[in-house]
Design goal:
mainly beta, 4-stranded antiparallel sheet, 0% helix
Length: 104
């Protein structure tokens, strides 16, 4: 997912994983010339994975991202997170129905 910010920079978000581990959701901000400004792992560890599927920059200079979080075996929930212009999490929410995969 790529979202252009008003200052010409861009937010790039997605997920990564290593063999035998859960995926981690990531977001980074790059300057107009491609220089990395910051990067942050949002959610995900060896047991719980997360993926980003969509997002958009907001007028305050941050970005709102949506995706999934869960163990990918029994439980997957939709989640949404707002990250500010400096890469700090402002808020995050998840929701779902037990035993049912949910996706934002």
């Amino acid at each position: 997912m790529v979202a252009a910010a008003e200052d010409g920079s861009a937010f790039v978000a997605g997920h990564h994983g290593l063999p035998d581990t859960a995926e981690a959701a990531l977001v980074m901000r790059v300057a107009a010339d491609g220089t990395l400004l910051w990067q942050r792992a949002l959610v995900g560890n060896g047991d719980v994975g997360a993926s980003i599927f969509s997002g958009m920059a907001d007028p305050s200079g941050g970005v709102v991202l949506a995706g999934t979080v869960g163990d990918y075996q029994d439980e997957v929930d939709a989640f949404i997170v707002k990250v500010d212009a400096s890469g700090e999490i402002v808020w995050q929410r998840s929701w779902g129905v037990p035993g049912s995969p949910d996706r934002a």
